[in-house]
């Protein structure tokens, strides 16, 4: 039997290991600030696999001055990062397998058919918050390591598995691994690409815009200026900016993507009293940054668009909306064309799945931006799960895709790190 | 000296009493649930005036089944209503002087030039939350009583001064006074009419509309449906409804008022994460009800308008916005034309201010609706302060207007209740 066949057989015979691990991980509600229990599941699994563990709380003083630090969380205590190392015998290329444990909030629970943190398997899909983004990918990585361990394959290069916190809020977890000294010849991140390969990824930044109004009694609302109405003007102007920005994009890796670098308004809040005209509304959103763009220029472009509102609106002229950049700022990444990391993954994909992979630029940022820009580590994003259901209610993962990825990852480790003949 | 002259003299010589009382009342931040300390100021003043006090906590069980009860507050303990009675010698008409002690929240503090609960007097205006709505009017009422007491005028009819809680949230404070048995031949409420007389008043109701979207990752926002975008469609449709409703109004008391019965959107909130497409946005607002309208028909009209969104929007068809009526529901009031209460107030106004008052319908509801519909007490609204600044930042009252009203109220008590010759 070839190694590919042995990997394939082992994964197929041990699917239940993966399913049980996934269910355990989904059951732990690892929203921001509550990552500990899901990390405990990871730690238990890594111990079982005989990996060398480095479990550490992020010290805010060690990350806060880094140029890519962008985070409004000040305390990471007891919510550790986990790094688990499978030391190679030497002489091979090393790889970082980076996966985040944090999940976004579940949204309105009434939109979920089943409770978001009680995983259910229906017709080959496992449902729950974090199945696609990205605990399914984490399971694929760990299954790949488990397969090689059980098949008694010894690698030459080091495998550095990282289960990090804070990806959804700006990447401080991964930044901390870089600053702790973790490096490798390449990195793979199993974010939900729906089995596409993403050698380039979009960056993104969070903004908050505060829009002023003039309060008045609702019974004479014509004496006030509604900050809700004014916020809508701001949102319309952001829609125009999104169009302008996307019309400029010509990278063929974005072919067929409706809006390559979207501006998303994710949150709105303002006003305090039904009978008062609201005098302050805040909107929070995310702007996508193309791999070729500089974050500072994008910030300037958005500021100018908002300032332009004052040109034909005297209220905005006197009361320009406040713009803040806060929380997450994901760096883009840009693997050079023809890089050996992409070639190795492409051929591993072909070996195991017997088709050509689709290669695109990602519609979102990942921690790959931090690995690339802060760690200078070549990165490729490839994983099970689909963006359509990430961050949505009734998020799910196709279990078959999770197993396919496990097989490709195992083969990738064999190809990239090399097999040792020592025992 | 005529009584009018004696009243005028006393008020002019004792303006400082009124200013000190106003400052004390503004200094107590009597937002909902925190009315106690401002009521203590009222109680102290009423004791000083020798009025008979009835200080009582509202028992929710005694009000909750009344048809005009509309309140989401379940506990009124230690935040009392205050009723202070100046018993007449008999044979005159009685009057309720009703004023509310609660104030709306101060909004964004950065919009205030001075802190909202630290009153400042600048150029004859006293600034602070509640100056206009309606602690200034409360001071006018108490000054009027103080003037008559000091002038040793004895009235025939009873004067029932009421300092109630909960006006801003639906009138439960005043409803409790009615259910406790307080009645009178007429009632006067010193809400900020800018010295106009309002024999009719608009009712109003609060609504909450929940608008659904479909969540998705912000990087592929085109795979979701933004509840923020959909909420704006709802708001636009409410603007249309406002227009339709106001085009129907022909009451001459509304002449010159830009929007007689406005629909105000006071609050918006939704979305949880800048990088997610929001799947739920709520808007809260107030709809004005004309004196001639039935609340139930207004509710139906709003429901139908929202349902109509589904006619040409398949998202709304599948996901009709939820509509709730909550919190405040202010009743309208409608004093019959030529009523003696309005005639007495009009002539008192002429006696003291030597001009004709402007008579209109009010742009908002007051507790007068409860007195009228639940207590069957004829009501007129007339007070210092202006709607423009009520509920706004830098709310203020012209002190001169506060004293003018005190004079008119004193004269009104003399005319309405009659003077006793007993001592």
TrEMBL record, chains A, B:
It comes from the Bacteria. InterPro entries: ArgE/DapE, Bact_exopeptidase_dim_dom, Peptidase_M20, Peptidase_M20_dimer, Peptidase_M20A. Keywords: Cobalt, Hydrolase, Metal-binding, Zinc. Gene3D superfamilies: 3.30.70.360, Zn peptidases. Pfam families: M20_dimer, Peptidase_M20. The keyword Transcription regulation does not apply. Its cofactor is Co(2+); Zn(2+). Residues 201-312 form the Peptidase M20 dimerisation domain. PANTHER family: ACETYLORNITHINE DEACETYLASE, PEPTIDASE M20 DIMERISATION DOMAIN-CONTAINING PROTEIN. Belongs to the peptidase M20A family. This is Peptidase.
């Amino acid at each position: 039997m070839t190694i590919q066949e042995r990997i394939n057989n082992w994964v197929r015979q041990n699917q239940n290991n993966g399913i049980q691990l996934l269910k355990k991980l989904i059951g732990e509600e690892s929203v921001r600030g509550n990552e500990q229990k899901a990390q405990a599941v990871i730690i238990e699994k890594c111990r079982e696999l005989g990996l060398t563990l480095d479990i550490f709380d992020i010290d805010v003083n060690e990350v806060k001055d880094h140029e890519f630090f962008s985070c409004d969380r000040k305390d990471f205590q007891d919510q550790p990062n986990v790094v688990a190392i499978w030391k190679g015998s030497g002489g091979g290329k090393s790889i970082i397998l980076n996966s985040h444990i944090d999940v976004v909030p579940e949204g309105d629970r009434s939109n979920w058919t089943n409770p978001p943190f009680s995983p259910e398997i229906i017709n080959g899909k496992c449902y729950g918050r974090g199945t696609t983004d990205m605990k399914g990918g984490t399971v694929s990585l760990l299954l790949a390591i488990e397969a090689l361990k059980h098949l008694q394959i010894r690698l030459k290069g080091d495998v550095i598995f990282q289960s990090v916190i804070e990806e959804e809020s700006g990447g401080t977890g991964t930044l901390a691994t870089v600053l702790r000294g973790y490096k490798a010849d390449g990195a793979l991140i199993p974010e939900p690409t729906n089995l596409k390969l993403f050698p380039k990824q979009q960056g993104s930044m969070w903004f908050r815009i505060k829009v002023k109004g003039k309060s008045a009694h609702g019974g004479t609302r014509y004496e006030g200026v509604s900050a809700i109405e004014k916020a809508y003007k701001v949102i319309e102007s952001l829609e125009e900016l999104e169009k302008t920005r996307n019309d400029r994009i010509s990278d063929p890796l974005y072919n067929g993507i409706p809006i390559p670098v979207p501006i998303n308004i994710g949150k709105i809040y303002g006003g305090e009293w039904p009978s008062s005209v609201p005098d302050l509304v805040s909107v929070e959103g995310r702007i996508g940054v193309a791999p070729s763009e500089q974050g500072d220029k994008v910030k300037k472009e958005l500021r100018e668009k908002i300032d332009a509102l004052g040109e034909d609106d005297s209220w905005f002229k006197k009361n320009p909306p406040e713009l803040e950049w806060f929380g997450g700022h994901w760096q883009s990444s840009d693997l050079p064309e023809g890089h050996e990391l992409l070639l190795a993954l492409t051929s591993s994909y072909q070996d195991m799945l017997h088709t050509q992979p689709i290669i695109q630029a990602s519609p979102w940022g990942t921690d790959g931006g931090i690995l690339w820009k802060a760690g200078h580590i070549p990165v490729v994003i490839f994983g099970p799960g689909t963006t359509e259901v990430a961050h949505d209610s009734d998020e799910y993962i196709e279990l078959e895709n999770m197993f396919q990825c496990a097989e490709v990852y195992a083969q990738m480790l064999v190809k990239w790190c090399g097999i040792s003949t020592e025992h």
